[in-house]
Every structure is written in structure tokens, then in C-alpha cells.
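ok so i was messing around last nite and threw this chain in just to see what happens. nothing serious, just curious
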Amino acid sequence: MTEKEKMLNGRFYDYRDPALERMREKAAGLLSLYNQTGFHERGRRKELLKLVLGDVGENCTIELPFHCDYGCHLHIGKNFYSNIHFTVLDCADVYIGDNVLIGPNVGIYPPDHALDPVERAASLERSLPVNIRDGVWIGGHSVILGNVTIGENTVIGAGSVVTKDIPANVIAFGNPCRVYRKITEKDKMIYT
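result:
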């Protein structure tokens, strides 16, 4: 089994593997071009995202700068918006649904280094997938760890650290992130 296969199957792998390094270098080159685009170069950004990401839906906006490890393991639905400094360490598959909003300085971190110092020095890590369902809003400076699913329409408050699954249709926040309450009709904003 290759190090990439181990990585994508949630097993410990050597992240310094030359094949993985080449994949990261390719993504870094494309992201360097992406992050150098001008504010009005939306078409060029869209082209570059299609080259680096595994999937990218229609009407996808990722503000500058944007960073990811591989890109090809990041799958984004339609009507997606991410504010500045979005970072995804996509060593495992990261699935982001439709109509998702990401605040500034949000990080999605599936990799988990070995706890044992000898294993950690041997470049061992494990990565588990992340699933962010449709309609989710993640507040700024939040961190999403691996092996987490965030349910549909949920709001994650700013500064949260999501270490476990969060159900659909709730407001959750904190470190560690916990459910505060369900989203109700009282949460609707009335425009006059």
C-alpha cells in the first residue's frame, strides 16, 4: 500500500513521502498563482480553482489568500463563499456542501500527528475526513478537526474548535464546540 493510499484510508502514513511532496508542490504552485491574482480577476481564479480542487461547484468564491495541502481532496459545492485566510489541510477528503459560508481565518485540519515523540519524529501522521453539509455558516477564526461532520444549516460561532460531530439546524460554539440551541423561527430576520 502506498503512503497516499494509507493517507486516504485513515492509516498512519509518512507525510514526507516523495510522491506526496510532489503533489503538495503542484498544488502550491497553482495556489501561488491564485493568490497573486488581482481583485477583479474572478475568471482567472475560477480557472485555477478548477485545476487545483477535487470538485468546485458553480458560484464558488474563495477570497485571497487561500491555502491547502493537495487541493484534489477538497470537494466544494455550489454557492460557496470563503472569506480571507481560508486554510484546508486536505490530507483526507474534505466535503463542503452547497450554500456554505466560511468566515475569515478559518482552518480545516484533518491531519493528526503521532502522539508518541519517536513516531512523531518519524514523520507519521493520520488524517480523517471532514464533512460540512449544505447551508452551514462557520464563523471567523474557527478550527474544524478531522473525523467531524457538521449537519445541515448549522451555525458555528466565531472562534470555535470543532472536535466532534455537530447536528443539523443548531447554533454551536466554544472550545470545544458544543451545541447551544436549535435554530428556530425566531431567528428569522425580517426585512422591511
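not much to say yet. The mean pLDDT is 95.
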